[in-house]
Amino acid sequence: MTEEIEEEDEEIEEWLLAQGCCAHCEERMLYAEDSYSLSICSAKVSLLGLLFTPLLLEGDPYKSRMFDSDCWEGAEEELRESKADVPPILDNYAILDCGVCECGIREDELLGIVVHGEVHRSQRNPAGEAPSDTFVVMDDDPLILCISCLHTLDVDIVQDLWDFRIAQETECEEGTFARCWRHGCSADGQCKKRLEETG
Ligand SMILES: [Zn+2]
Ligand SMILES: [Zn+2]
Ligand SMILES: [Zn+2]
User: Does pTM top 0.90 for this prediction?
Assistant: First the structure.
């Protein structure tokens, strides 16, 4: 092909590039392409059904992440494979089940919501400011991930999703998988597993 056409292609590409990057391959996301967004929140039972509340912590340590569809679909498949032979921790107080490992999720426990949609250029763009991204949900059948799957995704599959290791309270890694806070273990930074290990 001629050089002229190649240059034109590059221009179109720049126009289509979102500000945000895919959490997995770190390439800029493309506007209006099939994408996924992962956000952390917790759920409560209300009269209207389940009420999801985004996690509001100082400094937003577990901020929402975006993925292009190839990266998310690959990561989800790896996650499913890694949990395939792990028996789920069922829980009588669970209000939700993880969509991957089937572990129960209790009220107020951290969980991930993965939604399918597209990144669009934000319509509200104050003069002089760089365009920002907004995620438009295309189907409202989200995938729910428990804290243990979020941890596996962060540590073994995607890596460095967040600046801090995901934890319900202050429990050790093993405590995150065992949900030790359910037994009063990790409140006040006193995870018994951690204490036992350090003697
Ligand atoms: Zn990617
Ligand atoms: Zn799970
Ligand atoms: Zn513990």
Answer: no
- Report yes or no: 172 and 166 within 8 Å, Cβ to Cβ: no
Using the mean position of ligand 3's atoms as its centre, give its distance from the Cα of residue 60 in Å: 24
Q: Could you report the per-residue pLDDT of 11-56, keeping only the tens digit for each?
A: 667 788 999 999 999 999 999 999 999 999 999 999 999 999 998 8
Residue 154: closest CA among 58, 59, 53, 40: 40
Q: Does residue 88 contact residue 101 with C-beta atoms inside 8 Å?
A: yes
Quote the ligand 3 centre to 13 CA distance (angstroms).
49
| Closest ligand (CA of 94) | 2
- How far is ligand 2, taken at its centre, from the CA of residue 97, in Å? 8
Q: How far is the CA of 118 from the centre of ligand 2 (A)?
A: 25
Query: 34 C-alpha vs ligand 2 centroid, how far in Å?
Result: 24
Gap between the Cα atoms of 182 and 147, Å rounded: 13
pLDDT tens digits, 88-129: 999 999 999 999 999 999 999 999 999 999 999 887 666 667
